[in-house]
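User: Can you write out an input/output pair for a complex, sequences first and structure second?

Assistant: Here is one pair. Inputs:
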Amino acid sequence: MKRQECIAMLLAGGQGSRLGGLTRNRAKPAVSFCGKYRIIDFTLSNCTNSNINTVGVLIQYKPFLLNSYIGLGSAWDLDNPFGGVHILPPFLGETEGSWYNGTANAVYQNYEFIDYYDPEYVIILSGDHVYKMDYTLMLKFHKEKKSEITLATIQVPWEETSRFGILSVDADARITKFSEKPAQADSNLASMGVYIFNGSTLKEALIADKGDYLSQNDFGKNIIPHQLNQGKRVYAYKFHGYWRDVGTIESYYLANMESLRDGHFLNIFDPKFRIFSNEDIFPPHFVGETAEIENSLICNGCTVHGKVSNSILAPGVYVGEGVEIRDSIVLPYVKVHEGSIVHRAIVGENAEIMSQCIIGAQGQGAPAQEGITVIEDYHLIPEGTVIEAGMNVCRSRAI
Amino acid sequence: MSNAIGIIFANSGSDNLQGLALERPIAAVPFGGRYRILDFALSSMVNSGIRTIGLVTPHQYRPLLDHLGAGKDWFLERKDGGLFILPGVMHGLAGNNHMFCIKDLKNNLEYLQKDFVENVVISSGDQIFNINFRDSLEFHKDKHADVTLIYKALNDSDDDSNSKIFLDLDEDLKVSNIQERNGLEKEGLNYPFFVNILLIRRELLLDIIEKYSSFGCIDLMNIIAANLGVLKIFASPTSSLIRPIRTIKDYFDRSMDLLDFKVREQLWLGVDRTHTKIVDNPPTKYTSQAKVSNSLIASGCSIAGEVINSIVFRGVILEQGCRIQNSIIMPKCRIHANAQTNYTILDKSVKVQGENVLKGSENQPLVILKKTVI
């Protein structure tokens, strides 16, 4: 009973260098999001909620924390005797083997894994997107259209089209044109980086791509345009809902902050489509007599004695007396001591801000990265330090 | 690997919990924002390296099993050992006043027979504590003891309204006398009392069950006391915080104790965590109208009202303008706009509609039964 109808290949090996200090010690999918989650929770929970119980997770960059977080996948009910989560690192064979060189190459190198389950369909996912999606609906669409490749798409604002892979479709939703980050777009339908391939189509495409020495071995840049040119039946499935690429400091910050809004699309409180996570067990959070909390998300294990407004406190955060945290994202186990001010900042995991510091102080001139200050994981900010807005504060070397 | 298996008596009920224990044993009463009272005994055993634990269940065991599942959240879903459900004896109307009833064990003899370990750790399931039993197991082994009773010296902070079993010890910590008395009668502090947790040799326990099972419901502690001269009975000290929950006053006071940092530090902030069922709730949302002070708040809540000196469990919704004071609000309750509670305990899924005022007193907190709509 090995054969699966649809398996998922989850691309989680990218470095995510645009997240600065947040990804210096861990792969991007393992970065904390919205307090108690990590970015990969969304994709893994989507798989569970879509009855996809075989997931290959392709890893490469600083995988330890990501691997230990995923474990056997039991936190997402993915510990399944007929499949489950498989961590797929780059490996050596008798004569061949190398680092993953592009997204398509990563999947190509693991074709043995896909063959083992011999699936009719393969869904390619990305470990750095925040969204809730039922893949079964997309698969149904794929079957109905007798499609060979289906791309999940979402409408983006016209002014942002130059950031995405943009698709033009005909009346039947068949893709007629694909342009990666076009200067002048003739459509605002963007690819979400979620693809369903027929098993056989994927195999052919990957082998052809491997033989092409000019290819960058990337799904978006090479495989999709090439297959389109070959006249393959490539369709666009329209997704309606919330979807965010959190690849940059600005987009990561914005997506977190959006979750503070009422009636938010992501609706993490929806019991019918739950987002699972592998949380550490903590007691409830304690709110002291001097605390003031306003429009914020607070997780288990926090202790709050200061002021917190428009912010997210991840599990195990300590906020001392007289502290002011505004418009900030404070990641797990951070300690902020007496009298410090944290404004518009992302404070990395296990960082410690000693007393009377100012993080995100108004500097001279316009600050970088929209004035968002980032403090690296495990960083210790000594007493009385003032850090100007828009800085990336890193330790001298990564652990 | 620990050389012990565990048994937790999770079947003690109480008529003094004003309805909190109406349809559940004390062990299954929610406590401390996200736990059930049983979690404390269970987690202590798990943290001590015990991976085979038998749970003596009462007649109404649905809430217990709902909470425990296959024991995965306590790492007890295992090939070797794991969580065993030991159905307890059905008691008549008279109820069960025994702590460790031999008949409960007799009915589950196989659990004890099929294991190979040396010792059994037995605990009641109605106390709040976080104790690592490794030291006591070591002590038990060093003394070649038949039975080791875990004890604590009575001190100021111990609530002495409950009757306790007091121990007389010699210098070698051998027990020379066991007597049950009301704590108030005991003159002076530092008197050692039994904390309802003991270690016993498995073979000896099997012998005792065989010999005494014809007596029906007889308490293991009575048998141990009666055989004081024959058995090697020692006592091992603990300095940990340990609090029984028997009455509604106990429940309310012990809950409010959690607002004291020292209590939370001993119970929750050490190396050994208290494990519980994981529900994967989202973080708690505070709106801009929320005003919270000196309170414990679990995850998955939505808070738009005022909360003072209170404990709020998972998934509670507090609407704008409501005022929660000195209260305990259990999971999935909803307090509508402008309602007020003071010295009130709301059991699970209670709805308090707008403008209602619920008021108990410090010594007699008002208890609202599960799923009541007010």
